[in-house]
Structures are given as C-alpha cells and as structure tokens.
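User: Reviewer 2 asked us to show a designed sequence for the structure in our supplementary figure. I'm pasting the structure tokens here. Could you produce the per-position amino acids so we can include them in the response letter?
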C-alpha cells in the first residue's frame, strides 16, 4: 500500500541546480520508496509489539545507515524470512558527521540495490578534494573508470537515513519497532557471551529503576548489532578501551546556489584554479562540489556541501580534551582556527561566512573523534557490524564506505550458507573478516595517520604534513593512488604503506636539504639527525595502527 508523503518544511526539495547532473550516478530524480519517507504506519510501538509473535529469523538492532541497509538487503535476499528491526527513534536524525559518501561507498550502495537512495534529498555530487596549505592549493580528484570520473555524494545525514529507512518500511517481511534493546539474550560462560539467541526489547525510554516490562525475542538465525558509535553492546565483543583522538566542532554556512560549474574541477595536483568570492552570500567554497580541506588551522578544517544552499564546516580540535564553551574558550579557539585556515586576504567571502556563522551560532555542536579497531566475531548467533564493530577518525569520511561494504560482503556470503547453522555461520564470519580487512585497514589507518599529520602537534609531524602536501601536489599516480585510498576505491594495504613511507622519505630529503618551511635551520649534522628522527616518528604514526587493525 502506498502511503502519501507528508509535507515537511525542513526537508529541502530536489536539488535546485542541474549543473552537476551525473548520468552514471544520478542525485536528482525520484527514489522509488520516497512515499515511505515520513510514513509511520509501518512502525509499531513497544506496546503494540508486546502482543505480537516473539520469534523472527533475523533481528537487527539499530536503523542507522548500516542497520537500515542491512535489513533491506536481508529482506531482498531472504524474501520468506521474518526480520525485526528495533530502533529507539524513527524520527529524522540530526548529526554533524556521516554527511559525505565516498565513491567506494556509492559502489556499495549500488551493490545493495539502492542506487537511487540519494535522489530527492537535495544531495550534491562530489568530485574530489581541494586542499590548502600555507597559501598553496592542490586538487585531488577521484579516480576514473571506463565510464569516466567516479563521484561521491554529500547530503544531510538524516535525509539519507530516512530514505534508507523508507526502503525498509516498504518491505512486507520487515517489522519496524520503536523501542529499546536492553540486553542480549543467550548463553554466558565466565561472564562472557558464547551464544546469542535473541534480544530483550523494552519501551523507547527505559526507567532508571528497571521497572519497565520487557519482552524476550528469539532470533532463529542471527542477531545483528548495528547500534552505532555509542553501541551499548560493543563490550560484549570487544573490551579494548576506546581511543578519543580529537573533537570535531560543527557549523553551517547558508548561501546561494552556484550559478556556474567553472570551479567544480581543476587540474590534478598543484592548482591555482580556485574560486575566491568576496560576497559571503554566494557559495564561499574555493571548489564547490568538492571536499575542501584547510590545513592551517589549530587542526584541519573540513567544508563540504550538504545541499546547494548549505555547507557543513567541521573544525578539528586535536586531543581528548575540549575547551570549555561556558567561559568562551571554545569559541575563541574556533575563531583562531577558522581565521588561520581561511585568512581574509586569501578567502574574503569564506572568511566572512565563517565568522558570521560562528557569531550567529547559539551553541557549538561537537562530537568526539574515536578509533576502535575491529575484533573477530566469535560469538555464535550474532554479528557486530558498522560502527558497533569498528570506528575510525571521520577526517577522511570513510566510515559509511567501510560499513556498507561490510554489509555487501556479509550478505553475499550468507546467501550461500545456512544462517541457522552455527558452524557454517562461523565459517562465513571468518571469510567475512578476511575479505573486509583490506578496505577497512586502508580507510581506518589512513584516517588516523592523516589526522596525526594534519593536526601536526610537533615539528616532525609538521614536516611530514608539508611532505604529504608536496607529494600530493606532484600529480600523476602521486595524487591519484592516494585519492584511491581516500575514496575507498583502492583497498591495497601494501600500496598504502609504500606511499606513506614515500612521503616520509620526501620529508627526510626536505629536512636534510633545508628546503622545508615547516622545519628549517640547524647544522647539517643536526638536520641529518632530525630527518631520520622524523622517519622514526612516521613509523610510530602508522605501524601501531596497522598492527592493531591486524589483530584478530
């Protein structure tokens, strides 16, 4: 039954600019499940659910981008199965990350049969990255395939999630429940789960005294834990401590749509082909329809469009401690960072827009940037997936790419095995871990390593940042293969290590020859010593992260 779509004044209509229509990856048009976007007829409350059957083939905890995509694919691959999706809040989420999908993630979306999920939400195609450093600029375009340049997509996070949820709600074999999963149900040995047989479901809001009546749900085949970065069940699988690396502080720039596609693309590597508008009312980005990365702030500053009229600003503040907003220290830190990243004499329009947005913001929204390496899924009857399993720094925007490819690989393997047979499922999980690892390792390691370089808290890291910029500026494969790592299109750990240490040896050359701006001066003997100490620092940046990713 088709449900009419309600009008939502906060949901922007279709993209207003046809300048960047991609014939191979449409972001305009109509999503086939759009009519379910606002519908709540398919969602039942906990009270209604408590009177229904408590046995399902699959149980999915969480309906974020990974949980919703997984539930949809299970429904399509197992049309006779009954699938339960439990989500605490089915309203449109509002987050300041998860708003850019790399081309690798777009490929995964297509594999899942959701090719048009970016339609009708005002999404904007993304061509690559513009990076600025010490008054220099470079363009890192995405790779090409036989059909031309591959593209990513940027959007409002909540609108994409609602489209994915709409696809779930349209499937007759998915039951959507608004409630909370309070605990996993199964066999426990020495305080640790060995087998998960189901979940305990309670109302949307659980009373602190535990007086709520909960019901047990049996999962005949598998339970999927997809409750995101704040997963309450991660410790059942992975007891390693969470590493808080930095914080992203989010702002929004409002502007007019671009009227020309002149600055959507540029030459590969070093470029002077950038837009520098004076009027802050127009699109202020140096390269619209690209991820814009400014490296001269306190930490890296990212800018990307969520629609033709809105741009997200994410200013990184390195370290686990965030300055206080109550005494004005946070705003002062952000003002300094944004002014350094986009100086007025280079980017007059962008500088004005950033200062205006900071002044007009009543509250600065911040989110911690964490790193949680994956661990083997050895518990029978359950699979941890998405950010519940594995978290990386959001600097490179690769989280959804990793999570969606995890869904693609896992569902492809499950389709040829008996999901109710624990031995077969353990074989599936072992194969899944092996097949997911190259892409996940590249994206995860790159995110942490690049943040260490771009935040540059020491002279040695500053030298490595300068060498990284010079390396990417060379063009050719010096630019395009690292672009493949960023975009999730080149899942080759060995190639990543080769390029990272190529950057490190370029840093050695810059230091010894005294051609570095970031780290200059000293006698030849001292320059040689500090150059090879920088090489040691480079090894300490990347090798421990790789080692942690390789652990079972």
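Assistant: Here is a per-position design you can include in the supplement:
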């Amino acid at each position: 039954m088709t449900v009419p779509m309600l009008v939502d004044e906060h949901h922007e209509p279709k993209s207003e600019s046809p300048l960047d229509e991609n014939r191979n990856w449409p972001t305009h048009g109509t999503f086939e499940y759009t009519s379910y976007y606002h519908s709540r007829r398919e969602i039942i409350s906990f009270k209604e659910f408590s009177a229904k059957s408590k046995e399902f083939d699959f149980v999915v905890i969480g309906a974020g981008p990974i949980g919703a995509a997984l539930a949809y694919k299970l429904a399509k691959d197992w049309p006779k199965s009954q699938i339960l999706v439990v989500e605490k809040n089915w309203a449109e989420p509002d987050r300041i990350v998860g708003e850019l999908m790399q081309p690798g993630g777009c490929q995964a979306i297509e594999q899942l049969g959701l090719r048009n999920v970016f339609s009708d939400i005002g999404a904007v195609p993304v061509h690559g990255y513009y990076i600025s450093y010490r008054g220099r600029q470079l363009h890192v375009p995405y790779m090409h395939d036989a059909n031309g340049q591959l593209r990513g997509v940027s959007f409002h996070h909540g609108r994409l999630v609602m489209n994915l949820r709409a696809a779930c709600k349209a499937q007759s074999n998915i039951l959507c429940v608004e409630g909370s999963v309070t605990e996993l149900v199964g066999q426990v040995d020495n305080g640790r789960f060995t087998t998960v047989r189901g979940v305990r479901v309670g109302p949307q809001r659980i009373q602190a005294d535990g007086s709520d009546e909960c019901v047990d749900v049996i999962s005949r085949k598998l339970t999927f834990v997809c409750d995101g970065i704040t997963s309450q069940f991660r410790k059942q699988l992975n007891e390693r401590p969470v590493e808080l690396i930095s914080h992203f502080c989010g702002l929004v720039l409002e502007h007019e749509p671009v009227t020309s596609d002149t600055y959507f693309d540029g030459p590969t590597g070093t470029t002077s082909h950038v837009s520098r508008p004076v009027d802050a009312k127009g699109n202020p980005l140096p390269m619209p329809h690209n991820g814009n990365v400014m490296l001269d702030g306190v930490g890296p500053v990212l800018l990307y469009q969520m629609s033709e009229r809105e741009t997200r600003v994410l200013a990184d503040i390195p370290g686990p401690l965030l300055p206080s907003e109550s005494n004005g220290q946070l705003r002062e830190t952000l003002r300094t960072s944004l002014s350094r990243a986009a100086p007025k004499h280079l980017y007059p329009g962008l500088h004005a827009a950033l200062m205006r947005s900071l002044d007009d913001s009543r509250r600065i929204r911040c989110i911690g940037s964490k790193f949680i390496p994956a661990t083997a899924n050895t518990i029978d009857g359950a699979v941890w997936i998405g950010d519940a399993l594995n978290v990386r720094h959001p600097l490179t925007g690769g989280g959804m790419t990793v999570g969606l490819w995890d869904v693609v690989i896992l569902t492809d393997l499950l389709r040829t095995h008996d999901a109710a047979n624990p031995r077969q499922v353990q074989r599936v999980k072992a194969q899944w871990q092996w097949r997911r690892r190259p892409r996940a390792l590249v994206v995860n390691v790159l995110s942490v390593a690049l943040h260490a370089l771009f935040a540059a808290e020491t002279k040695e890291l500053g030298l490595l940042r300068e060498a990284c910029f010079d390396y990417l500026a060379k063009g050719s494969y010096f630019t395009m293969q690292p672009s493949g790592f960023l975009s999730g299109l080149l899942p080759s750990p060995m190639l990543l290590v080769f390029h990272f240490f190529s950057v490190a040896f370029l840093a050695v050359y810059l230091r010894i020859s005294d051609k570095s701006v970031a780290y200059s001066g000293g006698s030849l003997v001292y320059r040689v010593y500090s150059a090879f100490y920088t090489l040691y620092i480079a090894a300490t940046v990347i090798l421990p992260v790789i080692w942690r990713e390789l652990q079972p």
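For the response letter, you might also mention the following. Residues 422-455 form the longest helix (34 residues). The radius of gyration is 24 Å.
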